[in-house]
Amino acid sequence: MLVCLRKADAGGEVLLTDGQAVHEHLSRTAPEALEYMSRPGTAFYGGGGGHASQIFTPLASRALLRFRRDQLAQFSPLIQRFLPHLHEAIAAHQRTFLLEPGQGYIVDNHRYLHARAAFDGPRECVRALGEPRFPMLPGFSVGDLWQSPSATPVGIPRPACRSAQPARAGGRPFLAPTPQGVAR
User: Fold this and answer.
1) Per-residue pLDDT averaged across 14-33, rounded?
2) Which among 30, 58, 138, 160 counts the fewest CB atoms within 10 Å?
3) 37 — alpha (psi -120 to 50), left (phi > 0) or beta?
4) Residue closest to 66 by CA, chosen among 74, 75, 56
5) How many other C-beta atoms are found inside a 10 Å radius of the C-beta of residue 161?
6) CB 164 within 8 A of CB 90
7) Strand runs (DSSP E) across 98-164, as ranges?
8) Over the stretch 146-173, which tens digit does the pLDDT of each residue have?
């Protein structure tokens, strides 16, 4: 959860992206990229005490998502060439909005990517991490995208294309996170 106590003089928009939409986008447009980004050990998150991981973690008919674009993220050479596909999918489904003091949001870190745009002036937000009080299914549903008789050569089908309607506040273009803007 993140709540704004004082907004910046300029900038600082919240950038949210639904991981399920990103996964579906990649399954249609870059299935090989999705397959490689789902391989264990292709991402490393954290400093010296960090851990090897992957961007998408398959769980039967569900998936978890973890992705950062900061100095605490490193990616295997196996997936470096696929990262532009991921950035394109994120941009296509990103929602941008500005929090006023007293406003906030709650996200599931295994479903949503979240970041912020650069800002000027003082800005104060409060972040709280927690566990759900009631059991939740992990991540998001992917149906049979991991295994299917009509799958591509890498095992991921190309579902029928759905039109995406990304919301952008005031029609502003995609704002790429700065090094201070972490998407995970």
Assistant:
1) 96
2) 160
3) alpha
4) 56
5) 10
6) no
7) 104-105, 112-116, 119-120, 124-127, 140-141
8) 444 444 333 433 333 333 333 333 333 3
